[in-house]
Amino acid sequence: MKLNKTRFCPSPTGLLHLGNLRTSLFSFLIAKKTNGSFLLRIEDTDLERSKKEFSDAICADLKWVGLEWDEGPEVGGEEKSYYQSQRLELYQEFYEKLLDQDLIYPCFTSEEELKIIRRNQIAAGQPPRYTGVWSQASKEEVQEELDKGNKPVYRFRIPKKTTISFMDLVKGEQSFSTDDLDDFIVRKKDSTPTFMFANAIDDSLMGVDLVLRGDDHLSNTPRQIALLESLDLSLPHYAHVSLFTGSDGAPLSKRNGSLSISDLKEMGYLPIAVLNYLSRVGHTINDNDLKTQKELADSFETKNISSSPSKFDLDQLLFWQKKAVDNLTIDECASWLSGNLDDLPPTVQERGFIELIKENINFPNEAKEYVDNLFVSALSADEENLKIIQSAGQEFFILALEVVNAGLSDWKQTCKDIEARTGKKGKELFMPLRVAITGQTRGPELDKVIELIGLERVLERLQEASQI
RNA sequence: GGCCCGUUCGUCUAGUGGUUAGGACAUCUGGUUUUCAUCCAGGCAACAGGAGUUCGAUUCUCCUACGGGCUACCA
């Protein structure tokens, strides 16, 4: 299929999370794969909840993971604006057209009345449906309300007794009876458009030919199709991807461990790790190689999008993070770690240090911990360390100190000497030394660590250990 | 209530009218690493349930259960 434009159109009522991001990533990858363009549109028609700070944050997050849009806010394009709040005049012409053809009508039933009607319908076991009293109202009745200063909403006259069908690229052939649909609102009382209207109209006006979105929109699709058809506007292809849920199966939220993109950024996740993870949940890629954005696009297949929902799994994200860190060059690693290496003594080469610890870290703060333990802090006597040091005994460290004092040329030889002096061997010998010298039970190879931190620090630490 | 979507190891998933139902993550065991990580070898672990169609259903159909969505002057 030849596509030339996909889109992502968030409403700026909150921060981007992994669910949104995955949907936008799919759209982005399809655009890149097909040499099409990727459009970003901000759907800020809900004046109450939309905030500029959110749309700015969303843009920043998208850029951080590398989803640069070809058309939209900041970069521009053929449209007057990519913020719907600035496109209101544009919608006017369509309202007029619809009104002329009697395809929409004003409705003066208040929200309160609607609520009561709905409640009664549900209580009576009936489908909660707009009863349509205003759909047959006369000009006079309408005028009467207008004269009273009442503002109407406008409802779309859904055609009755027809079937609306479309081919969904993920879910397959879909078919809905319009009898199950009621006359939905296209324009609110404050004259702003509803999502159902603006979203569909804009996709068509902007030449979007693939609408890939969450499957929470699947049953909205027939309404949007009916609207577009009544206006003789072009229909896009549709692809509805299933939800990306929290680990408990509920929609992503703070409560089930959902992280915002800025959380991830702050924690030191690498964009490429996030991208590789997200490309493989709800979509199959045959291998487990860490791929570049371009490679991900090449591997993307709409037919490989899963139609069932998937759960967020931190372990799997972590797996890609490890791979991504491994894949970093020393220079890339340095800039990733910047700010965490500030306490490194001037005598220590940053690159050398990075090379030493790179395999042992997944996040920048772990590098900071190494700096701290190796160069800055006194020996941390947490429970685990204390146990190891105490079971080795004071005598052990005094003897070790003597050996090291006698000259440290080769760590392996030194170990042998300590072994001879103390009678300890294997783990008994090695762990206490590691803990004393590095302050941790784990970490890079000891001889390399010692090479980097120097004799003085080793002595200092053994001294400390001997006094515990 | 109506309409719609979904259900394969704990998780992400592959797969087929006849397979020992495959892989990855996690986990466990062993080896390498005098630690950890890495790496290597191996283990545990799944077709939601019930009917039907069929010589044979995880695969096709229907029902049920469970999860989710829409049914908003939210998107």
Describe this structure as you would to a colleague.
Among the domains are: 87-241, Rossmann fold (3-Layer(aba) Sandwich); 330-377; 378-466, Arc Repressor Mutant, subunit A. Helix 1 (18-33) crosses helix 10 (293-299), helix 9 (271-278) crosses helix 11 (314-326) and helix 16 (394-405) runs antiparallel to helix 20. The protein has 468 residues and is mostly helical. The protein is built from 20 helices and 11 strands. It starts with a strand and ends with a helix. Strands 3-4-7 form a 3-stranded antiparallel β-sheet. A two-stranded parallel sheet has the order 1-2. The relative contact order is 0.09. It has helices at 18-33, 52-65, 88-100, 111-123, 139-147, 195-205, 221-230, 261-267, 271-278, 293-299, 314-326, 330-337, 350-357, 364-376, 383-392, 394-405, 411-422, 427-438, 446-453, 455-466; strands spanning 5-8, 37-40, 104-107, 153-156, 163-168, 172-177, 185-187, 210-214, 237-241, 244-245, 310-311.
Give the strand content.
5-15%
**What name is given to the CATH topology of the domain at 87-241?**
Rossmann fold
Provide the structure class. mainly alpha
- Report the oligomer: single chain
Keywords:
two-stranded parallel ribbon, single chain, three-stranded antiparallel β-sheet, mainly alpha, about 10% strand, Arc Repressor Mutant, subunit A, about 475 residues, RNA-binding, Rossmann fold, 11 strands
